[in-house]
Amino acid sequence: MALSGRFPKPKTVAEFMAQDVVTIRASATIDEVAKTLVDRHISGAPVVDAEGVPVGVVSQTDLLASRVPKGESEPDAIFDDTDTSISDTQRLMRNPTAEMVMTPMVLSVSRDTDVRTAARIMVAEKVHRLLVTDGEKVVGIISTLDLLRALVEEEAPKAPGTGGSGPPIPSPSLPPTSGASR
Fold this sequence. Notes:
Blueprint: E1 24-25, H1 30-40, E2 44-48, E3 54-59, H2 60-67, H3 75-79, H4 88-94, H5 98-101, E4 108-109, H6 115-125, E5 129-134, E6 137-143, H7 144-155
Parallel strand pairs: 1-2, 4-5
Antiparallel strand pairs: 2-3, 5-6
Protein backbone atom coordinates (compact mmCIF):
# COMPACT_ATOMS: atom_id res chain seq x y z
CA MET A 1 0.00 0.00 0.00
CA ALA A 2 1.51 3.32 -1.08
CA LEU A 3 1.35 6.29 1.28
CA SER A 4 2.22 8.91 -1.31
CA GLY A 5 -1.31 10.30 -1.56
CA ARG A 6 -2.14 10.27 2.15
CA PHE A 7 0.05 13.09 3.42
CA PRO A 8 0.07 16.53 1.81
CA LYS A 9 3.36 17.69 0.38
CA PRO A 10 4.84 20.47 2.55
CA LYS A 11 4.49 23.93 1.07
CA THR A 12 7.74 25.51 -0.03
CA VAL A 13 9.13 29.01 0.11
CA ALA A 14 8.97 29.16 -3.71
CA GLU A 15 5.17 29.07 -3.56
CA PHE A 16 4.94 32.24 -1.44
CA MET A 17 8.09 34.30 -2.00
CA ALA A 18 8.20 37.59 -3.84
CA GLN A 19 10.23 37.11 -7.00
CA ASP A 20 10.50 40.75 -8.05
CA VAL A 21 13.16 41.58 -5.48
CA VAL A 22 14.17 45.18 -4.96
CA THR A 23 17.84 45.36 -4.03
CA ILE A 24 19.76 48.29 -2.59
CA ARG A 25 23.34 49.17 -3.50
CA ALA A 26 25.62 49.16 -0.45
CA SER A 27 26.73 52.69 -1.42
CA ALA A 28 23.17 54.11 -1.61
CA THR A 29 22.47 56.91 0.86
CA ILE A 30 19.76 56.35 3.41
CA ASP A 31 17.72 59.05 1.70
CA GLU A 32 17.86 56.97 -1.50
CA VAL A 33 17.01 53.82 0.46
CA ALA A 34 14.07 55.51 2.18
CA LYS A 35 12.71 56.77 -1.15
CA THR A 36 13.00 53.28 -2.67
CA LEU A 37 11.23 51.62 0.26
CA VAL A 38 8.44 54.19 0.26
CA ASP A 39 8.02 54.20 -3.54
CA ARG A 40 7.91 50.39 -3.70
CA HIS A 41 5.73 49.99 -0.58
CA ILE A 42 8.17 47.60 1.10
CA SER A 43 9.56 47.50 4.62
CA GLY A 44 13.07 46.30 3.81
CA ALA A 45 15.37 45.03 1.09
CA PRO A 46 18.61 43.14 0.54
CA VAL A 47 21.76 45.23 0.29
CA VAL A 48 24.12 44.04 -2.45
CA ASP A 49 27.74 44.76 -3.32
CA ALA A 50 29.00 45.82 -6.76
CA GLU A 51 28.78 42.21 -8.01
CA GLY A 52 25.18 41.80 -6.81
CA VAL A 53 26.10 39.53 -3.91
CA PRO A 54 23.96 40.14 -0.80
CA VAL A 55 25.93 41.69 2.07
CA GLY A 56 23.05 42.55 4.42
CA VAL A 57 19.47 43.72 4.75
CA VAL A 58 18.22 47.24 5.39
CA SER A 59 14.82 47.90 6.93
CA GLN A 60 12.61 50.82 7.88
CA THR A 61 13.73 50.34 11.48
CA ASP A 62 17.40 50.62 10.45
CA LEU A 63 16.63 53.89 8.67
CA LEU A 64 14.73 55.35 11.59
CA ALA A 65 17.45 54.32 14.05
CA SER A 66 20.06 56.01 11.86
CA ARG A 67 18.16 59.31 11.94
CA VAL A 68 17.57 59.50 15.68
CA PRO A 69 20.68 60.93 17.33
CA LYS A 70 21.67 59.21 20.54
CA GLY A 71 21.06 61.43 23.52
CA GLU A 72 19.18 64.12 21.58
CA SER A 73 15.51 64.62 22.15
CA GLU A 74 14.83 67.72 20.08
CA PRO A 75 12.71 66.72 17.04
CA ASP A 76 14.36 69.40 14.87
CA ALA A 77 17.80 67.88 15.49
CA ILE A 78 16.76 64.61 13.89
CA PHE A 79 16.28 65.86 10.33
CA ASP A 80 18.26 69.12 10.28
CA ASP A 81 20.77 69.00 7.41
CA THR A 82 21.04 72.77 7.10
CA ASP A 83 23.79 73.32 9.71
CA THR A 84 26.66 74.86 7.73
CA SER A 85 29.17 74.55 10.59
CA ILE A 86 29.54 70.77 10.22
CA SER A 87 32.27 69.02 8.25
CA ASP A 88 31.72 66.73 5.26
CA THR A 89 32.44 63.72 7.51
CA GLN A 90 29.80 64.86 9.98
CA ARG A 91 27.37 65.47 7.10
CA LEU A 92 28.06 61.93 5.80
CA MET A 93 27.25 60.59 9.26
CA ARG A 94 23.97 62.50 9.09
CA ASN A 95 23.20 60.77 5.79
CA PRO A 96 25.03 57.44 5.98
CA THR A 97 24.98 54.73 3.35
CA ALA A 98 22.95 51.53 3.35
CA GLU A 99 26.10 49.60 4.24
CA MET A 100 26.55 51.73 7.37
CA VAL A 101 23.04 51.15 8.75
CA MET A 102 22.10 47.70 7.42
CA THR A 103 21.98 44.49 9.39
CA PRO A 104 25.10 42.80 8.03
CA MET A 105 23.93 39.26 8.68
CA VAL A 106 22.45 37.63 5.58
CA LEU A 107 19.95 34.93 6.40
CA SER A 108 18.83 32.95 3.41
CA VAL A 109 16.97 29.82 2.39
CA SER A 110 16.56 27.98 -0.88
CA ARG A 111 13.38 27.85 -2.95
CA ASP A 112 12.60 24.31 -1.81
CA THR A 113 12.77 25.11 1.92
CA ASP A 114 9.58 24.15 3.76
CA VAL A 115 7.62 27.23 4.90
CA ARG A 116 7.55 25.96 8.50
CA THR A 117 11.36 25.74 8.51
CA ALA A 118 11.57 29.29 7.18
CA ALA A 119 9.15 30.43 9.90
CA ARG A 120 11.25 28.75 12.60
CA ILE A 121 14.37 30.54 11.32
CA MET A 122 12.61 33.91 11.36
CA VAL A 123 11.33 33.39 14.90
CA ALA A 124 14.68 32.11 16.20
CA GLU A 125 16.66 34.94 14.57
CA LYS A 126 14.02 37.62 15.25
CA VAL A 127 13.91 38.80 11.64
CA HIS A 128 11.02 39.76 9.36
CA ARG A 129 12.39 38.53 6.04
CA LEU A 130 14.68 35.91 4.57
CA LEU A 131 16.45 36.11 1.26
CA VAL A 132 15.80 33.25 -1.12
CA THR A 133 19.01 32.42 -2.92
CA ASP A 134 20.34 30.16 -5.61
CA GLY A 135 24.05 30.06 -4.86
CA GLU A 136 25.00 33.69 -4.22
CA LYS A 137 22.20 35.08 -6.39
CA VAL A 138 19.06 36.51 -4.77
CA VAL A 139 16.05 34.96 -6.52
CA GLY A 140 13.35 35.98 -4.08
CA ILE A 141 12.47 37.23 -0.64
CA ILE A 142 10.00 35.82 1.85
CA SER A 143 8.54 37.91 4.63
CA THR A 144 6.66 37.14 7.80
CA LEU A 145 3.47 38.23 6.01
CA ASP A 146 4.15 35.72 3.20
CA LEU A 147 4.64 32.95 5.77
CA LEU A 148 1.53 33.94 7.67
CA ARG A 149 -0.40 33.68 4.39
CA ALA A 150 1.07 30.21 3.82
CA LEU A 151 0.11 29.05 7.30
CA VAL A 152 -3.42 30.46 6.97
CA GLU A 153 -3.86 28.63 3.66
CA GLU A 154 -2.57 25.44 5.23
CA GLU A 155 -4.93 25.70 8.21
CA ALA A 156 -8.01 26.82 6.25
CA PRO A 157 -10.75 24.19 6.05
CA LYS A 158 -11.18 22.66 2.62
CA ALA A 159 -14.45 22.71 0.75
CA PRO A 160 -16.59 19.58 1.18
CA GLY A 161 -15.35 16.73 -0.96
CA THR A 162 -11.76 18.04 -1.21
CA GLY A 163 -10.31 16.29 1.81
CA GLY A 164 -10.81 19.07 4.35
CA SER A 165 -12.80 18.68 7.53
CA GLY A 166 -15.67 20.79 8.71
CA PRO A 167 -17.90 23.30 7.02
CA PRO A 168 -16.50 26.32 5.19
CA ILE A 169 -15.97 29.42 7.30
CA PRO A 170 -18.55 32.08 6.42
CA SER A 171 -17.28 35.51 5.39
CA PRO A 172 -17.74 38.21 7.96
CA SER A 173 -20.64 40.52 7.30
CA LEU A 174 -20.80 44.20 7.94
CA PRO A 175 -23.33 45.53 10.47
CA PRO A 176 -26.50 46.89 8.91
CA THR A 177 -26.43 50.59 8.21
CA SER A 178 -29.26 52.99 8.62
CA GLY A 179 -30.16 55.71 6.17
CA ALA A 180 -29.61 58.41 8.80
CA SER A 181 -26.34 60.24 8.83
CA ARG A 182 -24.73 61.51 11.99
